[in-house]
C-alpha cells in the first residue's frame, strides 16, 4: 500500500473497500484495473456501439457524414470509469486527470499536430474553476509530445443541460455555441472530450475546426454512452 494512502485513507467509491493506491485514489487497485477497454462492434466513424459484429457504418453517419474523421474512446460510460469521470468533473478531484489520461494514451492515436480540448463557457469555467478536458489534454500532450492548443476554440454561449435531450435537440442546443479563436490551416487535430453521448458537442466543435482549415479532426474521449437499444 502507498504511504500516502496510509496517511490519508479513503474508501473506494465502487466496492467500498479501502483505497490502496494514491495514484488513482480514492479507487482501489482492483476496481481501477477492472476498467475495461471497449473492443466490441461499433460504427467505424462515430464509434456508436452496435448489436452485431457485422454492422458497419451507423444510419446517422451514412445519412450525414460528420465533420470529424472518427471518434476513438477508451470504454463504456459505466461502473468505475463513470465514477472516475464524475469525481473529476463534478467533485473537483483533479488528480484523477492523470490516470484517466493514461487510459487514453493506451489507445492507438493517429499522428496529429495539436490537441484541442472541448472548451467550457467562461461562466461554467468560473463556477468549476477548471476544465477537465484541458487537464486530460495536458497529460496526453506530455505523454505523446503533441502540442496542447488552448487558444483555438472558444465556447461563446452557455448551453442548457443535455440530460434527457434527443440527439437532434442537442445539435440544436450547441449550434453556433463554439467559435474559432484562430485558424488551424492544414493541421491534423485531436479533439479531446470526457464523455460522448450523442456526439452533438464534438460534432459542432469539429465543424468549426474544419471550417477554419483543419486538415482532419479525430475525436478522442474517455467514454461513450451506450445507445438505449443495447
Please tell me what the overall shape is. globular
Percent helix, as a range, is 25-40%
State the helix count. Answer: 9
Task: Enumerate the spans where pLDDT stays under 50 for 5 or more consecutive residues.
Answer: 1-8
Order of helices and strands: HHHEHHEHHEHEEHE
Examine the coordinates and then state which fold CATH places here, giving the name of the CATH topology of the largest domain. Answer: Rossmann fold
Number of strands: 6
Structure class: alpha/beta
Mean of all residue-level pLDDT scores: 88
Number of domains: 2
* CATH second-level architecture of the largest domain: 3-Layer(aba) Sandwich
- CATH uppermost class of the largest domain: Alpha Beta
Radius of gyration: 18 Å
Distance linking N and C termini: 39 Å
Q: Beta fraction of the residues?
A: 15-25%
Widest sheet: strand ordering: 1-6-5-2
Major β-sheet, in short? 4 strands, parallel
What's the quick description here?
This protein has 230 residues and is α/β, with parallel strands linked by helices. Helix content is 33%, strand content 15%.
Can you tag this structure with a few keywords?
230 residues; alpha/beta; Rossmann fold; four-stranded parallel sheet; two-stranded antiparallel sheet; 6 strands; disordered N terminus
Give an account of the 3D structure:
- There is one protein chain.
- This protein has 230 residues and is an alpha/beta fold.
- The protein folds into two domains: 34 residues, no CATH class; 186 residues, 3-Layer(aba) Sandwich (Rossmann fold).
- 33% of the residues lie in helices and 15% in strands.
- The chain contains nine helices and six strands; from the N terminus they run H-H-H-E-H-H-E-H-H-E-H-E-E-H-E.
- The strands form two sheets. Strands 1-6-5-2 form a four-stranded parallel β-sheet, sandwiched between helices.
- It is globular, with a radius of gyration of 18 Å.
